[in-house]
Amino acid sequence: MDLTTKVILIVLFMFLGTLSLSFIVNPRLVSMFPGVGFTKEMMYERRVRTIIPALYLTMCYFINRIFAGRNPITTLLPIYKLIISFVITQFIALFFMGITIAQFLCFLISLGTAFSLRMADLKRSRQIIGRF
Hints:
Blueprint lengths: L2 H23 L14 H29 L7 H22 L3 H31 L1
Helix pairs in contact: 2-3, 3-4
């Protein structure tokens, strides 16, 4: 695994771990991200339109893989699929919520993360397939 992939995964782990613990302890604690200019209602709507559907889409994808009898090849695949689901829901939410600079930057960061994880997943898949 190259350095870029490790850095992206470490940052994702810290960010998602911090948010999940914050939501468990006090769901109202993280009602807004500083500096983006969203009201609490806008942040709630963004969460409902992007994060929750992304999680559901990812679960549907892996349930479908179970029924199809296929397992993920690499351990990066579930993370990649979750980020892709998040990118898709963010893209759709841009049309319903209006485009702001903060939303567009978040979309671009997610898209870049998805691209980097896809490249790492492809590289790892080639290594695994090469062993057999």
